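Team,

Forwarding the record for the chain on the shared tracking sheet. I've put the sequence and predicted structure together so nobody has to dig through attachments.
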Amino acid sequence: MHHLFTHNDLDGVGCGVVARCAFGEKIEVRYNSVQSINPQVSRYMDAYREKPKKGGFLFVTDLSVSEEVEARIDRFLQNGGKARLLDHHKTSLHLNRHPWATVQVAYDDGRQTSATSLFYDYLVQHRMLQPNEALAEFVELVRQYDTWEWEKHDNVTAKRLNDLFFLLSLDEFEDRMVERVKRKEGFAFTDFEEKLLELEESKIDRYVRRKKRELVQTFVSDRCVGIVHAESYHSELSHELGRAFPHLDYIAILNVGGKKLSLRTVHDHVDVSDIAAGYGGGGHAKAAGCPLSDAAFRAYAVEPFALDPPRPDADRNEYNVKGSEYGVLYENRAGEQLFLFQAEGRWHLDANGETAEPAFDAFEEAERYVKRRYAAWLVRDDAFIQYLMRHAGKR
C-alpha cells in the first residue's frame, strides 16, 4: 500500500487525482494544510517503525517538511523505506540536498511547474502511470491555474476548474475528476457543472465589486500595497484588484477568522514569496501566503485600520480622461487636487496649485506616481471643469 500526503488546494488534490489513476485502491491519500504536514508524516514514520511496511512508497507533494522530519525521512530510507517528495515552491529548494526530494520551480522551456505536473511526470517516467489525453489536459489545467499562466493564455477553463473545486466537497471533486480523466477523451465539464459555474460566476462578480470598494492603500516597508479583508474567492479577488489598481505593487487579503494572509501580484518585478517568507510563509513569485502572525497583523490590519478606501476612478467622463491634452485631474480623501498636464513634451504635476517635481516622460508614469503617493482617483467631469475655470487665468 502506497501513501500520499499532499496539500488541500487544487494543486494538492490534483496530485491525489493522479495518484488514484496510477494506483487505484492501492494508495491512501491524505490532504493536509501547511501546518499539519509535519505531524502527519511523523505519525506515518512512527507507525512504520513499529510495523515496517514492505513495497509501499511514501509520497509527499506540494508541501515542504521541517528539518526534524527531513532527518526522520533519511533514517526511514536507511531502514528500508521508500519515499519521494515533489514540490515546486522556491522556499523548498533546500530540500534538493536529499536524494529523495525533487523541488523544481520551472521547466527547461521556462514554463512554471506545479506539484501535479511534477508528480504526473514522475509517475509516467517511472512507468507507474499510463498517460491519456484527458488526464494530461487535466494536469495542464491545474498547472496553469496554480502558476497563474491561465491569465496570460486567457485559459478560463483552468480558472473554472478551481471554481468547481470550491463548489464541491473535496471527496466529490476527487471522485468526479478520477472518473472523468479515465475516459481518455478530452477533459470537459458536464452540463450540470456548466450551470453551476455560471451561477457561481455571478456570485463572484457581486462579491468582487463590493470588496473593490473596501480596499485601502498604504505602504508596508517600501512596497505600495492594497489591503482588503475577505474570507472567500481570494484568487478571483486578487486578480481583479490587481488589474483595477495596477499602481499597487501587490494585493494583501486578510482572513482574520482563518488567521491567514494571502499575497498576490500582477507584476514581474515583485516577488511576494519573499514578502511572505518574512512572516513565516512562502509560495510563488506572484501568489504566496503566510500565517497571520502578530507582526503580520500589526502591519496589515492594525496600522491601516484607520485608513479610508480611495474612491474608484470616474468611468463615464468625456473631458477628464486619462492622457488628455487638456490635462487630467485627480483628488484624494484629504481634499488635495492633483493636476497632470503636458509641457515641453513631458508630464508635470500641479499639486494644490504648486508645480511639483519630478516630471515624467509618459502619462502612465505620472499617474502611477500620483496614485501611489497621494492615493488619488480620477474626478468627474463637473469637478474637472470647475477646476479649469478657477485656474484658467493662472496658466
